[in-house]
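Q: Okay, next protein. This is DUF2281 domain-containing protein from Spirosoma pollinicola. I've checked the sequence twice, so it should be correct. Can you predict the 3D structure?
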Amino acid sequence: MLATVTGTYKNGQIILDEELPVKSKSAKVIVTLVEDTVENEEKPTRQFGRLKGTFTDPYWSSKEFNDPLDDLKDYM
């Protein structure tokens, strides 16, 4: 049987948040440590109303951008 129980490691002891779901007096366990750094990191603040990426620099396009393409005239 596999079960997951959360707990806290403090001063060399593991304190479980709930009792183990095992009726026998002994059981094999696997301990996985999860660092708290994820909770302590500050999330970057979002800046609304501002475009990011390609549009951060002044955007420009050539004057001929919307002109029709003569290359495809033979196929139409």
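A: Here is a summary of the prediction. Residues 1 and 60 are 63 Å apart (CA to CA). The mean pLDDT is 79.
Q: Noted. On to the next one.
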